[in-house]
Amino acid sequence: MRLQLARLAGLFLLCLNLAWAQPADVARSKDHPLLTRFPNSHIVEYAKNFNGADFAVARGADGNPTRKRVEGDMTDILYFHNDVDRQPSALQLIRNYQNAIKGIGGEVVYERLPKDGDGGETTLRVNAGGKEVWVLVEPGIFSAPTQSYKLTVVEVAAMQQVVSANKMLDEINKNGFIALYINFDTNKAELKPDGQATVREIVAMLKAAPTLKIAVEGHTDNVGSAPANKTLSEQRAKSVMNAVVGGGIAAARLSAAGFGAERPIADNRSEEGRAKNRRVELVKKP
Question: Where is the protein situated, by its record's location annotation (predicted)?
Fold first, then answer.
């Protein structure tokens, strides 16, 4: 009798554990390294390859979104929530990912808020790991018993420019300055490998023109607060100047300053414009 009771108790516990077991992710799937899933959800579809997606970037005159095609290393993930009583609203889901991106220095490019019959969507962008990362979040509202949401992430190489020493000197002699696009991680001022390559060309230029003096000026786009952008631009300008001095150029020939978003050369309302505004300029000094 005791043996029967023990077996029944074991069977009951097994059934209870199965009832509470969380659904498993589809094989060979995982969260994107930048963005974890909403709690209590699982992956039902997963794809990772080089591809392109259309991201909403603005609202057109007709009220429909204007979209931009972005190509790169794309990760597509479809999640389903595990519990109908604990699943978030479509708005809660959108705000969750917007806050996550802003928390790592990114921005909300576009949002269409949920309404009857429409779960909405949001486009997010951040620079991370030397890449420009675009994110599309699309809450589902028609699945049952729990809802789903789709996360599309496309990583593209950030704007890079390694200009030769001769071209730098020609531009400075002709125009009095040259704009260089040196990649930095978001909210960081440490030079990356392509930045070090640009510094070597600056050093070579200054060695070839021993009387030339330059001001290194940092500039940002308008994302973030003005004081923070100004400080960051100063730090990046000093990072470049110090690296040039480390390459054997006398510090007296150089100065560094940061202007934040005060001197844009393109429209900050578009991503292309913001990318052009994130620059370091070498300006010829008397």
Answer: Cell outer membrane
Query: Do residues 261 and 226 touch, judged by C-beta distance below 8 A?
Result: yes
C-alpha–C-alpha distance, residues 128 and 32, integer Å: 13
Please report where in the chains the tokens 């978003």 appear, as a residue: 261
Task: Give dist(CA 235, CA 194) in Å, integer.
Answer: 18
Q: Are 244 and 202 in contact (CB under 8 A)?
A: yes
Asked which of 157, 187, 215 is the last residue of a domain, the reply is: 157
Domain housing 269:
165-284
Based on the fold, state whether residues 46 and 117 are members of the same structural domain.
yes
The last residue of a domain, from among 96, 123, 157: 157
120 and 241 both lie in a single domain: no
Per-residue pLDDT tens, the chain, 286 aa: give them.
554 544 544 444 444 444 445 789 999 999 999 999 999 999 999 999 988 899 999 888 888 899 988 888 999 999 999 999 999 999 999 999 999 999 988 899 999 999 888 899 999 999 887 688 999 999 998 888 899 999 999 998 666 667 899 999 999 999 999 999 988 877 889 988 778 889 999 999 999 999 999 999 999 999 889 999 999 999 999 999 999 999 999 999 999 999 999 999 999 887 778 888 999 999 999 9
Domain CATH number, residue 206: 3.30.1330.60
Degrees (nearest 5) of the Cα angle 41, 44, 50?
115
Domain identity same for 61 and 45? yes
Q: Please, which residues bridge with residue 79 across strands? A: 43, 149
